[in-house]
């Protein structure tokens, strides 16, 4: 069993109340006693149980963040900027990864409630609205991505997916592409569906027939399978729009493996502007959704909700910006 505040008090020859006052910076403690308690804490290697302290005081200084897949390059920078901003605001941060599993998502939300967090940033759309409302009912601030209307204790971060996809499709069209494929993600994820619908609408607005639309899984493997499939199509698309950067890397790998050149034979684009897009060879044309801004904004929104006397949620807009890489270019001549 670990050290307790009683062990520190006994070793220092003072009361537990005195130790508590020194550690929590409350009450009046003489300088000599104050130094004695601190030296005893250091000598014993005692670490206060912050979680228990917060439960006792009903004043949690912890924010949580739930993500779909920590291996997806989109999320680490979001988590990093969230944690940095949380610490600047005086909070600790805890992370849960759902791996796109509804059961794990439910367990992640329950874990946040058990830890008595002040607020939760839900950076995935596979969570049920019932869980979102349960968090809010417990007066736990919630910030999420395009999941539900704002209300008490609930704020929304809205990424302009349509603008991002529109910029890609119009860019490809201006470079002579007319057969533009789309590699989708997971149909149950609202953010993925929004990108697919934007692609279909933009293609139709340009007088083009959407498709082919290939299945993906937001991961390299799904992109690889799609790239191999595109290479076999006749007529073959001259461009492929991937739902995210990780998928785009797989698409490029599949095309190259099948003997196609990128971008001379097939242009490929991604979405999210992760580090992967920059490091890939060729570098990937993608859409920047400002992941650093996303994490910071999520922490700020939770902080504002949790300390407000009238915690009414707000909607925050995240812009999208086309970033040109070497994976795209003019359509090949027929």
Structure description:
With 334 residues, this protein is of the alpha/beta class. The protein folds into 3 domains: 5-48, lambda repressor-like DNA-binding domains (434 Repressor (Amino-terminal Domain), Orthogonal Bundle), CATH 1.10.260; 59-160 and 290-319, Response regulator (Rossmann fold, 3-Layer(aba) Sandwich); 161-288, Response regulator (Rossmann fold, 3-Layer(aba) Sandwich). 46% of the residues lie in helices and 15% in strands. The chain contains 13 helices and 12 strands. The strands form 3 sheets. Strands 2-1-3-4-5-11 form a 6-stranded parallel β-sheet, with helices on both faces. Helix 7 links the parallel strand 3 (119-123) and strand 4. Helix 5 packs parallel to helix 13 (291-307). The radius of gyration is 25 Å and the shape is elongated.
Q: What is the CATH level 1 assignment of the largest domain?
A: Alpha Beta
* Helix fraction bin: 40-55%
Strand order of the largest sheet: 2-1-3-4-5-11
Q: Enter the CATH topology name of the largest domain.
A: Rossmann fold
Q: H/E element string? A: HHHHEHEHEHEEHEHEHEHEHEHEE
How far from one another are the termini?
A: 75 Å
Q: How many structural domains can be distinguished in the coordinates?
A: 3
How many strand units?
A: 12
User: Would you identify the CATH architecture of the largest domain?
Assistant: 3-Layer(aba) Sandwich
User: How many helices does DSSP assign?
Assistant: 13
Binned strand content:
15-25%
Q: Tell me the radius of gyration.
A: 25 Å
**Low-pLDDT segments:** none
Major sheet summary line: 6 strands, parallel
Shape: elongated
CATH superfamily of the largest domain: Response regulator
Tell me the structural class: alpha/beta
- Mean pLDDT metric: 91
């Amino acid at each position: 069993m670990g050290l307790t505040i009683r062990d520190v008090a006994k070793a220092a020859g003072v009361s537990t109340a005195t130790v508590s006052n020194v550690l929590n910076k409350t009450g009046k403690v003489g300088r000599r006693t104050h130094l004695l308690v601190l030296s005893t804490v250091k000598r014993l290697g005692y670490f206060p149980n912050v979680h228990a302290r917060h439960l006792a005081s009903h004043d949690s200084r912890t924010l949580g963040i739930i993500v779909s897949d920590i291996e997806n390059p989109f999320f680490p920078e979001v988590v990093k900027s969230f944690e940095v901003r949380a610490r600047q605001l005086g909070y600790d941060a805890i992370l849960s990864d759902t791996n796109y599993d509804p059961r794990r998502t439910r367990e992640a939300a329950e874990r946040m409630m058990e830890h008595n967090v002040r607020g939760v940033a839900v950076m995935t759309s596979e969570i049920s609205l019932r869980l979102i409302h349960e968090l809010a009912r417990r007066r736990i601030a919630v910030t999420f991505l395009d999941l539900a209307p704002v209300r008490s204790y609930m704020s929304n971060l809205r990424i302009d997916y349509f603008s991002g996809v529109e910029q890609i499709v119009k860019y490809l069209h201006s470079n002579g592409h007319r057969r533009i494929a789309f590699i989708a993600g997971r149909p149950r994820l609202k953010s993925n569906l929004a990108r697919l619908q934007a692609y279909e609408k933009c293609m139709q607005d340009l007088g083009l027939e959407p498709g082919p639309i290939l299945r993906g899984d937001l991961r390299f493997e799904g992109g690889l399978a799609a790239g191999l499939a595109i290479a076999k199509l006749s007529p073959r698309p001259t461009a492929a729009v991937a739902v995210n950067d990780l998928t785009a890397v797989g698409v490029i790998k599949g095309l190259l493996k099948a003997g196609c050149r990128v971008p001379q034979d097939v242009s490929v684009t991604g979405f999210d502007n992760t580090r992967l897009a920059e490091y890939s060879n060729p570098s990937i044309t993608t859409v920047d959704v400002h992941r650093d801004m996303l994490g910071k904004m999520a922490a700020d929104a939770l902080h504002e909700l949790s300390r407000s006397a009238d915690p009414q949620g707000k909607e925050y807009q995240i812009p999208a910006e086309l970033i040109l890489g070497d994976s795209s270019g003019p359509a090949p001549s027929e």
